[in-house]
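By way of example, what follows is a protein record of this kind.
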Amino acid sequence: MKLLIRSARIIDRKSPFNGQVKDVLIEGATIKTIGDNLDAGGAEVLEGNDLCISAGWVDMRVASRDPGFEHKEDLTSVRAAAAHGGFTEIVLLPNTEPVVHSKDTLNYIRQSGSGGLVKLHVAAAVTRKAEGEDFTEMIDLHEAGAIAFTDGEHPVQNADLLLKTILYLQPLNALLMNRPEDKQLTLYGQMHEGLTSTLIGMKGIPALAEEMMLTRDLKLLAYALEKSKYKSDAPALHISLISSQKAVELIREAKQNGLPVSCDIAAHQLAFTDEDLIDFDTNLKVNPPFRSTADAQAIREALADGTIDAIVSDHNPHDEESKNLEFDHADFGITGLETAFSLALTHSRLSLENIIEKFTTSPRRILRLQEASIAEGSLANLTLFEQDTTWTFNKSFSKSKNTPFLGQTLRGKVRGVVNNGKHEWYL
């Protein structure tokens, strides 16, 4: 592969060319030369309208459904959706059938994406079948290449189990990811508990369920560190999908106290509040739910001050039979890989550089991945995009179409991705 990316603005704070408009010549899998008016020399030339280039984006939370539920999404379609969304690396949750609690399933998924344009990282389950009862063989799974440990869509409810997991993973310098939700407090809940849920007669999901479990997790983390002799600069616990003002405050305080914790939010949380569910659109049924305007504002402030480390797609594909139902019978979740960047750009109120940090540097730091940078001699792991170009989301490359954004015009268009000596370019 020989590519010349012409007149692209480099968005990479670690690059000596950050903020500059340069030509980038790629040969094989490596950035060969960065400069002005470079000779194409037979290379395929890529150029766009105010084209930008950054390190390849990383999505920390994706449900693939393969193996077991390939009619909703398979490993081929999830890679296609990721590439069109600008992601060159994605972390897949273990909630498949079978659950990723053995090396066989882990290796099946990892080998499927080996050497491809989109690298598949696999998070292994903390407990067998992600049922929250018996531990998996975490050392074996870690040595087999599991990037992190989580029960994914099933928050760990047992405090003793969570504590022992933190202690167990410390010597491995391995990451535990958990979504804070007290399942007893959210039983039968359909949407955020507030004025709108009362007006339309829906059972609410209180923010308290998230905040109580988050308080527990942070206290257990602090307790575990007191007992452990192992220290690391990387986060030991990653909190997935925070959604409330109080949760933001708890994370901020924990970081100020020196706890090795990180967190993310789903990009779609920036686009809606609970008031948008007044028409019972099942494509807006997500967990955690869209919360109040005050919660949304707190999330934006936490993104800006660095309390929230990363933005994820929380890509959660479902077939028509799981969504085209009465609201209280529909499954939670929307697809998000193809729209995450546009939503962050439109609704986060962050600068472009800060948005790119949430998709690149921060996820790699949390996941212990090698840094990717735009410099001569570096591996070409890149995302190409146009900040101000608008586009209509009229075709999804996911097998599932459970998104409220189909047919809408969005800002911020991904033009292509480069990785592992391969590339795609989208007109």
